[in-house]
Amino acid sequence: MKYVMPLLMIVLSACSSGHETVKIKGSDTEVNLSVLLAEQFHRTNSSLLVSVSGGGSGLGFASLLNGNTDIANSSRSIKKEEVNMFRHQNIEIDSFVFAQDAIAFVVSDQLGIDSISTATLSRILSSAYTDWSLVTNTTMPITIYGRQSNSGTHDYVKDILNIKFSPYAKQMNGNAQILEAIKADASGIGYVSAGYILNGNADGLKILTVYDGKERAISPLDTEAIASGEYFFQRPLFQYYRKSNYQKIKPFLDFEKSAAGAKIIRQSGYYPVMK
Asked: 201: closest CA among 212, 210, 189, 193?
């Protein structure tokens, strides 16, 4: 799967008069998947153009608020302060969960570790553990590769582990940048969407299985475990929109719910919402 730069705008057809455009902005976790869905949608709905760009969940909400997008992709729930901003402008919004995502924790394939507990992850990401000798037989400083604070993935990991992120964590622009950094750094650990580690992107990396308490370690690529809700780091992927724009975007939302949409979601390494 090729990474799409977060700020690159994808327009699925040359602009022409008489064509309505649906703009989607936000989560970098969702951007590649949204592009694939939009491309397939356009093949049978050529009168409605769809453009997709990333930039983070926070940017998606800001763009929806100021009218620069029709759909805000978000890999987290909307925050209370964001809800208040929409209320202040008397804008009614709604949301749609179109897929599920699993967060994968990755390290170099040179590191002597295959699984990790949520407790250990909490200590590493908060800098309570700063050397791999506390976890493995290797003495080497731990380098954390994460996302910026406006990232929904950053917020999700921080909140579910109930931690304050290490101030020394390197803030990367997106999933692909995190993977490339760890491939070049045997001391690194990072978190990415499971959809980004398919199709050869995991070369040189280990995808850690994760266990919580005394339960068995589970892989973020275990389809059955995800379907049954067993994996600790799995989450819904949201699309927020203004209620007043629903009829405009409805054809695209309906496509995402269809069998064709579910197939694309599954093939991209994500999980369709079970009805």
From this structure: 193
Predicted structure pTM score: 0.77
Residue with tokens 């475990």: 225
Work out the angle at residue 224's Cα, subtended by the Cα atoms of residues 218 and 227, and round it to the nearest 5 degrees.
105
pLDDT given for residue 184 in this prediction: 95
Instruction: Round the CA-based radius of gyration of the chain to a whole number and report it.
Output: 19
Beta strands in 30-121 (DSSP E): 48-55, 71-74, 93-108, 115-117
Q: Which residues of the chain have pLDDT under 50?
A: 1-17
Q: Alpha helix (H) ranges present in 162-258?
A: 175-183, 223-227, 246-257
Query: pLDDT (tens digit, 9 = 90+) per residue, 22-39?
Result: 999 999 889 989 999 999
The domains found in the chain, sorted by start residue, are 10-100+237-267 (3.40.190.10), 102-227 (3.40.190.10)
Q: What pLDDT does residue 187 have?
A: 97
